[in-house]
Design brief:
The protein is of the alpha/beta class. It has five helices and seven strands. Strand 3, helix 2 and strand 4 form a beta-alpha-beta unit. It starts with a helix and ends with a helix.
Length: 188
């Protein structure tokens, strides 16, 4: 009788892995040359990058395909020192990116109200996407073990293809580093 109970249990245990969905970690660098995972999430200042859709409250990367390159930078937490330095650095060169048909978009796992406060406090001139469910951050392989986004940046061309990924970022120098990459590789 005891063996009869163990056999069905053993069969169940063997069958579970076949049906269970394992979470697969995405290697950010593996995205280079591939279509960028789409994002459609709430964002601040949508009108800054989509002036024709000023009433829109979300951003989708599909909105830029065929029109603009996208610099999508992930940062850990709004209103913290490194994130402020990096975001303000991007703020200061946003016009230079615009001349290269490129929009800058920040994203973190913060809620939209924190993104709005950060935008207003630092006078940011580009949208910040709110990803509190962390799904977009996971799809880019940017979710850190702490539950916050890693400081990673993805450069996406007008076709929606990831062209460059930065996983080692100096908040102070990074915005100009990315600007130089866009100038050298994606300028008209």
């Amino acid at each position: 009788m005891r063996c009869v109970r163990l056999v069905p249990l053993a069969l169940v245990l063997l069958a579970v892995p076949a049906f269970a969905q394992e979470k697969k970690d995405v290697d950010p660098k593996s995205l280079v040359g591939k279509p960028a995972p789409d994002i459609t999430l709430p964002a601040t200042q949508v009108e800054k990058v989509l002036p024709n859709k000023a009433d829109k409250k979300t951003i989708s990367l599909k909105d830029f395909e065929g029109k603009k390159n996208v610099v999508l930078f992930f940062y850990p937490k709004a209103m913290t020192k490194g994130c402020t330095i990096e975001s303000c650095g991007f703020r200061d060169v946003t016009d230079d990116f615009a001349k290269l048909d490129t929009v800058v978009i920040g994203i973190s796992t913060d809620k939209l109200d924190a993104q709005t406060m950060f935008t207003e406090k630092e006078k940011l001139n580009f949208p910040l996407i709110a990803d509190p469910d962390k799904k977009a951050t996971e799809s880019y392989g940017a979710l850190g073990k702490s539950g916050f986004a890693n400081r990673y940046t993805y450069v996406i061309d007008k076709k929606g293809v990831v062209r460059q990924v930065y996983t080692t970022v100096s908040p102070t120098d990074h915005p100009k580093e990315v600007l130089n990459y866009v100038k050298e590789n994606l300028a008209k």
